Amino acid sequence: LACGGFHGTFYDLDTIEALGLCVQLGLTAFTSLIPYSLSVATFLVFWAMDREKWTGFFRTLAIGLVLVLPLSAMTYYYDWFVRPQMMVVSVGKIVEMKQTYPNSLADKYGISMEQILNKKPMSMSKTKLTAQIDSLETSFQADIDTCGLLLSILPDTLASKAYDCYRLKRIGVVYQYAVHPAASEDSLMYIAHTELYQHAFGAWETSNELQRHKQEYFGRTLNTGCIYIAYILFAFLGYLLRYKPIKKILAVFAILIVAACIYHEINSLVQGYAKKLNTESHQIVDDTYKEIDGIRESKEQEMNAETQLE
């Protein structure tokens, strides 16, 4: 099931490494499926209750929390502390197997794969991930404000073209323009085609990076939150449906639906995890080349500056 996401890479692993990857896939599926399993168990327990008073319902609900709390704590620990490290190890192993990593260039410019991996959202601790999200949001808002300020300097026609061309509406920039522009035509063209472009491009890059970090944060908190939502929702559902004469039919349908969801979720989770490992392994190589290009450009600028001084 999972091997298809690796396009043959899985078969290149040693036996122990392949087993380790299978364990990762299994743990990922297990923690994500806890809410589904819990929902079925909770529904059946509360559906089978004989007591009709709500005091009995809330007493059973409180007792059930004693079991739910350890499950949620285990899921939280795995998603925030275990899974990120396992992802880093797996991605690094896949990059090595594909032999696409520019080792010689990376060594030449003092770049290690660990440095690149540590910058990825998947490897960050909760504190670092939260701080990075706050930093990106601040940077994004600064670019948005600057884009709005630059637009307010431009005349209507030029501002409208830049607004549409740079898709500023999609990132939340409010359209505005200068009724009587004070700058010269050359300055206005420079603002529209250079300064505004740079800040718009920066805003889009920051926005994409921010979304990646937020998705990582959401993915790590989703399973824990779903455990409590599923427990409370199916407790009420099971308790209320016991009054209905068609409760057996409804219960069978509910279990069948949940079973179908679990099967679909297992398939999508494992395939998604495998795809993420592959995507991240490609991204590691791309990010390394970007780091190399950045170092090259900075060195060229330093050499040009030294030449001009001479």
Automatic annotation (TrEMBL):
Keywords: Membrane, Transmembrane, Transmembrane helix
Chain segments annotated as transmembrane: 29-49, 56-78, 222-241, 248-266
Name of the protein: Uncharacterized protein
Organism of derivation: Phocaeicola coprocola DSM 17136
